[in-house]
Amino acid sequence: MRLPELNPDRKMITGKICGIRVEEIEEPLMQEIRYLDKLVDELARGKTLEKILRK
Fold it and tell me: Which three-class secondary structure string do you get for 1-55?
């Protein structure tokens, strides 16, 4: 079974989550978790995926 790959455009997600800028997190695993947090928050606010990923 092959696991799905993460979208390479996730690095384009910027902003703060829990008071910390996502792009400034040094721990790679924590940064990936915060990318997902930010993505879910923005989708819940009604933004489109294209706008969040700045396409």
Answer: CCCCCCCHHHHHCCCEECCEEHHHCCCHHHHHHHHHHHHHHHHHCCCCHHHHCCC
pLDDT at position 55 over 80: no
Q: How far apart are CA 28 and CA 43, in angstroms?
A: 23
Burial of 10 (0-12, 13-18, 19+ CB in 10 A): middle
**Structural tokens at position 33:** 């978790």
- Closest Cα partner for 43 from 52, 35, 30? 52
Its pTM stands at 0.74
